[in-house]
Amino acid sequence: MKKSCRSFVKIGGAISLVLGLVVSQNQSAFAGWTGLISVKGTGWASVNVRSSTGISNRVTTVNNLALPSASMAPTNGYKTNAPLPSGALATTYSRIKALSNGGWLASANCTNSGDGTDNAELQQRLTITPSDCASMTFESAINQSPAEFAANGNSGTITVNAKATAGTALWLRGFEYTGSMADVPLDNPDTVENEAIEYLKAHGSSKFETLIAGPFEFGGPGGSTCPLIIPFSLSSTNIEHLVYTTDGVTLSLPLVVLTPSNVVVKCDESFSYPAVQYLGCGTITLSYVPAPLPGGVFPAGTFPVGVTPVTVTATDVHGNSASSSFTVTVTDTVPPVAPVLPTLTGESSVTVPQPAPTTDNCGGIVRATTTDPLLYTNQGTFTVHWNFDDGHGNTNPANQSVIVDDVTAPVAPVLATVTGQCSATVTVPTATDAVAGTITGTTSDPLTYNSQGTFTVRWTFNDGNGNTNTANQTVIVKDTIPPVRPTLANLTFAMCSSAPATPPTPTTTDNCKGVVSGTTTTPFPITTPGTTAVNWTFNDGNGNSTTATQNVTVAGLTFKGFYSPIGTVSNLCSAPVVINQGSVTPIKFDVFCGTFPVTTGQPPIVKIQVWTGCTEGAEPVSVAAVYQNDWHYNWDTSGWAKGIYKVIVVMPDQTTRHVFVKLK
Ligand SMILES: [Ca+2]
Ligand SMILES: [Ca+2]
Ligand SMILES: [Ca+2]
Ligand SMILES: [Ca+2]
After folding, report:
1. Phi and psi for 200 in degrees, rounded to 5?
2. Distance from Cα 212 to the centre of ligand 1, integer Å
3. Adjacent-strand bridge partners of 27
4. Which spans in 228-313 are helix H?
5. Which ligand is nearest to the CA of 420?
6. Contact assessment for residue 65 and residue 73, using Cβ atoms and an 8 Å cutoff
7. How many A from CA of 159 to the centre of ligand 1?
8. Angle at 268 between CA 262 and CA 270, to 5 degrees
9. Interval 52-85: pLDDT, tens
10. Which ligand is nearest to the Cα of residue 347, counting in written order?
């Protein structure tokens, strides 16, 4: 950017200018000359440059030299600025050249920043305010020849053409000195006073002195317009006694950049760099770190939240640069938007996941943090306190509910039916719960059943978290085993005994009933002589029975007889007892019951059968015997045909006895 020297330049424009501290190298620049010459052309010249680094270089001719600057290092013409001190700009120079008529050509240019000369005596006399690009050109000439000077009454003039900017001073002095120029010492630059001038003051006399502070302009191009005319006169008639001294100083300001104002923006705002003011000479270029965007506007989010330092550097065409810095502060005062977090539920436990990140007004991902546990294994309702922190000091909380609630009942088991013959006992069953694990069933029903039947045990399974389930268990007590079949001994009863023929009730054992007594439909006592099969039934009362047969014999009566006249008893048809046909034959016998004669009661029956050829025929007689001393039947055989007959006695116990008789 081009500008004129020393004008304030505003860059950016959006933000008002605020003057701040001047940040510069704070080094006034010096470049200048000093010289002394007599009109004869004898003297010395010196140039001095001091760089911004504080290093000076001074080049001085030897004293009492004719045309002193002409013998200086032949750089460019009369330029005597070589070598420049370290840190000096190549464009800095100071030149002086003495002319043969006692005039001077001189110039100085000290572009900022920091080069210069030091003329202590001059600067004690005059305060020079440094300026940008201070420069000065100067030429002077004595207008009279020695003859003209003498003819003019020992007076003359010096024409000065000079042009200078601010920050300069030109000091012209003249002395009348009649001594040897070889005696005039050089100025010691390390002392304030000019030793050469002091010598001239002491050994000569001051004739004129002109001290001009820039800016000024004397004489136009070619020196034809408004030059500075310095008149002088000497006591002597010899103009060669004039010693003409010149001192020039140029002081330049260094390049400076005024501290820009700081920028404070919200993170969602765009902004531009502030205006930058600088002081410099010539074209100044500003550069920034970080570099601005094309168009100069930073969209929101270009800079991070916080303070970012920005350095602005002004650079002139000479390579001088100066920097300043300001800050761009991006603020964030808006906390992140906290999401509504869903309630998390679980029956046995809940593991809380990391919530999805949210966004912040200043961009970026904001992740929630919490110091609460993320695993909950106890029943209950809990709150996880999440915090969304944008990292810029803004936080937003979000609470998340966690409910651990067992709402599922235990899984009811399928309970097997419990069976038993005589009794059954159930064992306590268990169920499985997803949360509580193994659940032991409870019931108010009995666990043991001793009676026959079908029962239901109602089990309840409670998980302890308010959830129950039930299961019924069937219990069947059923006796399916009949009593043991007993082996019953045969019994014999004497029919005529005083004890009735009543067999004792037999017993057996049953798996459930224990001792089971037999029952029978056979009437007791048994009165029928002989053997009776008694069918016993053993019933356990549970629908199971066993039968066993017992043979009971009722012993018959004892027959005694046949008494005489039948006598010998033959049971063979082929060997009958022979008696006479036509007689009354008593059939006599006794019946005993044990040792006791049966004399009463049911009488024996006497039967007589006709047997022809030992084959049974008719039975003409069947009568009851009569007891008189013994049982008898008087068989009147008269009228009976001769032949064989079977006489049968049927005793009350139905047992029989018989005898074959032959009537002849
Ligand atoms: Ca000195
Ligand atoms: Ca924020
Ligand atoms: Ca449960
Ligand atoms: Ca049984």
Report:
1. -65, -40
2. 20
3. none
4. none
5. 4
6. no
7. 27
8. 55
9. 666 777 777 777 666 555 444 433 334 444 466 6
10. 3
Task: List the domain boundaries for the chain.
Answer: 26-250, 256-331, 344-404, 418-473, 491-555, 558-663
Same fold, 256-331 and 558-663: yes
- Cα 481 to ligand 4 centre (Å): 4
pLDDT digits 0-9 by tens, 529-539: 778 999 999 99
Distance 403 CA to ligand 3 centre (A): 14
The predicted-structure confidence for 387-442, as pLDDT tens digits, reads as follows: 999 988 999 999 999 999 999 999 999 999 999 999 999 999 999 999 999 999 99
pLDDT given for residue 255 in this prediction: 75
Distance 516 CA to ligand 4 centre (A): 9
CB contact burial 112-150 (16+ within 10 A = b; e otherwise): bbbbbbbbebbbeeeebebbbbbbbbbbbbbbbebeebb
Distance, CA of 504 to CA of 500 (rounded, Å): 11
| Residue 460 Cα to ligand 3 middle (Å) | 13
Cβ-proximal residues to 300 (8 Å cutoff; 6+ apart), any chain: 267, 268, 269, 270
What does the pLDDT look like over 590-613, one tens digit per residue?
A: 998 767 788 888 899 999 999 988
- Among all bound ligands, the one having the nearest atom to the CA of 331 is 2
Res 10 pLDDT > 50:
no
pLDDT of residue 86: 66
Q: How far is the CA of 480 from the centre of ligand 4 (A)?
A: 6
**Cα(569) to centroid(ligand 4), Å:** 57
pLDDT number for residue 222: 57
The Å distance, Cα 295 to ligand 2 centre, comes to: 28
Ligand 3 centroid to residue 378 C-alpha, Å = 13
Ligand nearest to the CA of 434: 3
Ligand nearest to the CA of 484: 4
344 CA to centre of ligand 1 in angstroms:
93
Q: What percent of the chain has pLDDT over 70?
A: 87
Residue that has been written with the tokens 């390049």 in this structure: 255
Q: What is the mean pLDDT of residues 190-197?
A: 89
Look at residues 656, 654, 648, 657 and name the one whose alpha carbon lies nearest to residue 527. Answer: 654
Given CATH 2.60.40, say whether it is the number of domain 558-663.
yes
Residues, Cβ < 5 Å to ion ligand 4: 479, 481, 510-512, 540, 544
Positive or negative torsion for Cα 275, 280, 282, 286: negative
Nearest ligand (C-alpha, residue 467): 3
Could you tell me the pLDDT band of residue 48, with boundaries at 50, 70 and 90? confident
Structure confidence by residue, pLDDT tens digits, 643-658: 999 999 998 878 889 9
- Topology annotation, domain 256-331: Immunoglobulin-like (2.60.40)
Looking at the CA of 431, name the nearest ligand: 3
